[in-house]
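does this look right to u?? NAP version
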Amino acid sequence: MTDVPVRRLGALAVSAQGLGCMGMSHAYGASDDTDSIATVRRALDLGVTLLDTADFYGAGHNEELVGRAVVGRRDEVVLATKFGFANRLGEPTRIRGDAAYVRQACDASLRRLGVDHIDLYYQHRVDPAVPIEETVGAMAELVRAGKVRHLGLSEAGAATVRRAHVVHPIAALQSEWSLWTRGLEAEIVPLCRESGIGLVPFSPLGRGFLTGRYRSVDGLAENDIRRGQPRFADGNLERNLAIVARLDELAAARGVTAGQLALAWLHHRGGDHDDVVPIPGTRRQRYLEENLAALAVALSPEELATIEAAAPPEAIAGSRYDATSLTFVDD
Ligand SMILES: NC(=O)c1ccc[n+]([C@@H]2O[C@H](COP(=O)([O-])OP(=O)(O)OC[C@H]3O[C@@H](n4cnc5c(N)ncnc54)[C@H](OP(=O)(O)O)[C@@H]3O)[C@@H](O)[C@H]2O)c1
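got this back:
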């Protein structure tokens, strides 16, 4: 165990950085279960407690994988999973948040994870056809039944967060937040802070792009979702690479990697509030260790300003999702 600091997501205590497990089954090409399980277990050895999965990732495969990885170590782990996508990847998106679906999805997740409770249960996307009071009401029943400990939302807008929090305390909002995606900062971050809701930035490395590892989509698997994302498209990619080149220079001057700089910047957004818990995703122990080391990178106010000036929102080329996926983001 190392001394990874503890942060709070509402009433839930978690390691200051979690591990995103999505890529072990979904979205970024083929993976190897043995390596993935070793990475999860190494994360626990290093003091990471928060593991992030979802029923959607690999159509259940990711939850089964995480469940296998935590056998014998359940008590060390804060298990976070999500429901809401009723389709499989590649099929037309179908979001469901009705009470019957919430109950059914939770039982299926518990079965796949092989556990008797989920520590943090998120609605993955808000169902516009169902009042949030119904969805969160059903999630609250799961808490009362002992199947779930804490509740979260993902990509929910401010009005939804406010209404949900009245029905049952929301421990965490998991939404995209990184140096190239900062839409949360104006309204959502202050709202969460004043409501005692923790923030879990997903894709904190810009789906790996901010590490400088991806210079083109040519090496990506045919089914890698980044091939369809506007920021990786021809024309936009080149402009975004110019931003990464500046981050690389700043990182080199500090003796760290660009990815560590991007994560350290996010950690500093939590300031003294201790309520920001990024969940960088990786299948590899090497990257896990590199990413965790970002917690030790202290940045001065001047350095934070320089980093932000290197990646101004108006310079980011392309939207974070394609037009269809953006319609499932609540605002
Ligand atoms: N709520 C939502 O709607 C939502 C959406 C997306 C993601 N998420 C969650 O957030 C987690 C993280 O997001 P993400 O995986 O999309 O993006 P990310 O964490 O920004 O980036 C992950 C990508 O970066 C690569 N990577 C990680 N560390 C690296 C390093 N130090 N150097 C070079 N490359 C590195 C990974 O490669 P390898 O895998 O090859 O190691 C992977 O391709 C997911 O695992 C998932 O749990 C939630």
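The pocket of NAP is lined by residues 20-23, 28, 52, 124, 154-155, 174, 202-208, 211, 213, 259, 279-284, 287, 290-291 (CB under 6 Å). idk if thats expected tbh
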